[in-house]
Amino acid sequence: AGVSVKEFAELIGQRPADVVRKLMEMGQMVTFNQSINLEAASLIAEEYGAKVEVSTEKAGEALLEEAAQSSGEEHAVPRPPVVTIMGHVDHGKTSLLDAIRQTKVAEGEAGGITQHIGAYMVGVRDKQVTFLDTPGHEAFTAMRARGAKATDIVILVVAADDGVMPQTVEAIHHAKAAGVPLIVAINKVDKPGANVDRVKNALTEHGLVAESWGGDTIMVEVSAKQRTGLDNLLEMILLQAEVLELKADPERMAKGLVIEAKLDRGRGPIATVLVQSGTLHVGDAFVVGNFSGRVRALVTDTGKKTVEAGPSVPVEVIGLPGVPSAGDVFTIVKDERVAREIAQERAMKQRAADLAGPAKVSLDDLFAKIQEGNVKELPIVIKADVQGSAEALAAAVEKMPAGAVKLRVMHTGVGGITETDILLAAASKAIVIGFNIRPEPKAAALAEREGVDVRLYSIIYDALNDIRAAMEGLLEPTL
Length: 479
Ligand code: GDP
What we know:
Strand order of the largest sheet: 13-12-18-9-10-17-14-15
Helix content: 25-40%
Main location: cytoplasm
Structural class: alpha/beta
GO molecular function: translation initiation factor activity
Protein name: Translation initiation factor IF-2
Domain Tr-type G: 78-247
Number of strands: 22
Binding site for GTP: 87-94, 133-137, 187-190
Bound molecules: guanosine-5'-diphosphate
Mean pLDDT: 87
Shape: globular
């Protein structure tokens, strides 16, 4: 909360490293992103001929942060888990989403027509589960690259007749990178070629061992087509949710995430917001991205108008002045004036950030970042022309002597560098190494936009050499 050391340094026109040194001299060990306390800030500002003023009429983001701080979790109560379905193409992600929606929503809401608003909720006994409607790890990681965490639990769908495939492995890596627990749904068990044990066996090679085999990964057998095993899957989701102790305070001002947004011809801009804490009401003043406004109406996943939505509930919000982006944070504030101020402040900050360019990690500035204490670990995504090379390179990287940073290979794969690889790297502040392959044109453009460092090699030794040199600050700058 408050002002970070880095922001403070910028405010008084000094280098962050100098401010950190001053703080250290004062006996305070802080990093750039930690907040600076008022006393220290005043002292340092004075030294540089500046003055710290605390506005009682707190403006903008400061007010938001304070609200986030002071709200605490006194009234936190269990909230429904939010689930994303992932898996290889054609393994049944969409079928499973539809099957659960149709059986459960139809049961609970007599005659309720389900709307596609980007997420839906189903009732399981007296509890509820929220499903995000866009399956796949691409959407999941795209959100994460924007700093948004919408998902509590990942359902990994694996077709029993096809087994573990490349995108199954990708999904595992993406869920793991996000630290989100995973439940395996072995689908299509109705098919003649289904072989559940073969799937379980293949998954052990990727660190997922079924509970029935002495591991700790929940695996359930389902058929989206015949709608079997769905209740069991839902029970397991609730079980996992209980372990996670998911909680939120419904009494505070609401905060949520935009999971989908569009311009509707009749109703104007509409965003589906997944409420993450607090309760959202009609009439609330909000900020989302650079927009501000007042909630005019709320519409549920069954197409009904409602006056409020609590934690983990997805609702369509009407009353936006423009269309926000998926992943934008939606925050309720005291009144519309405050909302406007924050939106303006953000627009200004964004312009400044656009000018400054992306701030991700690259091998070129790795050494400087290590020196600043900003980087402790360097995650790496490796793509290669053949599996053998990818594995050899990954093994060699992981064997490199640990210097000031820990190298961690978070994903290896075969084939050209894709947009998904870039998003994963962007979300995890990783670099991408391509061996005997090139990025797809769209991926190259995305890497440029996101500031992801992509390095291409055809000799393993060269790749290792560059990483070592980067860690030691000896890398020749690339042109
Ligand atoms: P997605 O690409 O992962 O979303 O997969 P889809 O849901 O589109 O399913 C791909 C194909 O598998 C479709 O033809 C489905 O009808 C079929 N399918 C999905 N689930 C099952 C199942 O449980 N049993 C059988 N036999 N077919 C299924």
